[in-house]
Amino acid sequence: MGKMPDRRVYRIDMDQSDKPTERESETELPNKSAVPISLVTIKAACSQCSLHELCLSEGLSKEELAKLDNLVGARRKLKRQQNLYRAGEPFEALYAVRTGFFKTDVLLEDGREQVTGFQMAGEILGMDGIGTEVHTCNAVALEDGEVCVIPFAQLEMLSREIQALQHNFHKVMSRELVRDQGLMMLLGTMRAEERLAAFLLNMSQRFTSRGYSAAEFHLRMTREEIGSYLGLKLETVSRTFSRFQEEGFIAVQQKHIRILDGGGLKKLLSHQPR
Amino acid sequence: MGKMPDRRVYRIDMDQSDKPTERESETELPNKSAVPISLVTIKAACSQCSLHELCLSEGLSKEELAKLDNLVGARRKLKRQQNLYRAGEPFEALYAVRTGFFKTDVLLEDGREQVTGFQMAGEILGMDGIGTEVHTCNAVALEDGEVCVIPFAQLEMLSREIQALQHNFHKVMSRELVRDQGLMMLLGTMRAEERLAAFLLNMSQRFTSRGYSAAEFHLRMTREEIGSYLGLKLETVSRTFSRFQEEGFIAVQQKHIRILDGGGLKKLLSHQPR
DNA sequence: CGCGCTGTTGAAACTTGTCAAAGTTTGTGG
DNA sequence: CCACAAACTTTGACAAGTTTCAACAGCGCG
């Protein structure tokens, strides 16, 4: 929890009566200890971006890419623990993660938190705000990172022009819906062991598809955040990790995870209902 | 479970390797015991449709509505227990519920079912299929009903032309994402009592916004389906309903629910974590 | 009219949560 | 650079909530 008081809360009854508050003191430190942005561009450049297939630009022609580049106005740097946006703030843009690791969460008045997702490079944030013009969840950087800012009105305009862009965007939203289905399945039917196994395998797979090791990675989130995401208490997460370790499935060292027996984890998944 | 064998199953590891199967014997009984469709149209007619604000047609001009009418090719009638689509089938169209009551669910190989939503008049089904061109869940009629068929390729085409249509569609998808957030919160953090209270209030509110009584309604789904939706066993649902009745919050008579003390239910919601 | 599906209820078992204490790591300021 | 505090993690014992198993009742459909 920690920084709770300054995040926005979710009213159960669907009335999003929260007022937006003052924004983060837009800490756009102009390259303090920054990665030397080389000569290339300060502006975003989808055409150069290594996240192609994950993002919106797949299958666009050169000219179309140029238009998209033009649209993606700025990048925004986030420090660890900084909010990208908060529930209640007016919605204006989507964000594509370039670097870093994010979480989205929803808070109840009584302090309960539900982490609704962890996002990494190439994934899109902010789509929750389209329906009501107001963000309904909080997006927080779990480590220093950077996002591309995609003004939404302009994205709609451009996607009326570029069919492939339109379709890519629809695909991204749809995949998010499918991801949610999977998470509901997990939250609704799985036991703690299965949830953690599914979580680890999912992380592994996403790291892999970004070119990192499938077997060894660093979790950026706390046990409590994992627990919140999976509908478990942090103690249960901790205990289950320990059990996995005893059984030789993984080696845990704080936030470092090494998967020793992925097959074993998979077997846990298609096993038994509760 | 009952009709389990003929629905499609969800592979945990995201590989949707299921092959489509033969479709429902397209029972387009041409008005057997049908509601007399008057002279108006056999074709769908968004312009006439009473579901305006819920659906895609809000804020369109007359000519634009005419185009949308033209797009929404046919209606499809479903009998109780009939599948609108199944996981694994190729995705071609969205469906707008005109009448009746539907559920969507996802199945695991081992037989576990997660109901991911209940849909009523004015709500859109099928968006799960956009991302992969294949449906990822099953949609089933819980009572006889009818949907408008909206061929997706044409919807994209038309929404490149009509800005309001484009935006409406984006809003619909986004609201679905927000709904999912709420369900995750429910599944991840709430106790049985709270889940049921939230469920009843949600039903009540949706019936209300369609002009039905807020206090008295007929649930079309079984206790098992409610349980699956809420991540509970059917016995727990039953027990909790009984408890609510004892405490004077509701009157239950099988699938008929009468809400006697909505305030009491709301209080349950913003109460205590578990 | 009866069979089957659906719903209700009880008792016991099990999983997960709660509370508590102690260990570990990280970050900060002197 | 060290010391200390805060945050995070681990582990145990116990409590609570939910599931499981089982039996029975009721309604509805054929």
List the helices and strands and how they pair.
2 copies of one chain form a homodimer.
Chain A: E1 9-10, H1 62-71, E2 75-78, E3 83-85, E4 93-99, E5 102-108, E6 113-119, E7 124-125, E8 138-141, E9 145-151, H2 152-161, H3 163-189, H4 192-208, E10 216-218, H5 223-230, H6 234-246, E11 250-253, E12 256-259, H7 262-269
Parallel strand pairs in A: 1-5
Antiparallel strand pairs in A: 2-9, 3-8, 4-7, 4-9, 5-6, 5-8, 10-12, 11-12
Chain B binds a DNA duplex (30 and 30 nucleotides) through residues 2, 191-192, 222-224, 232-239, 241-242, 254-255, 274.
Short recap of the structure:
2 copies of one chain form a homodimer. The first copy, chain A, is 34% helix and 20% strand. Chain A has helices at residues 62-71, 152-161, 163-189, 192-208, 223-230, 234-246, 262-269, and strands at 9-10, 75-78, 83-85, 93-99, 102-108, 113-119, 124-125, 138-141, 145-151, 216-218, 250-253, 256-259.
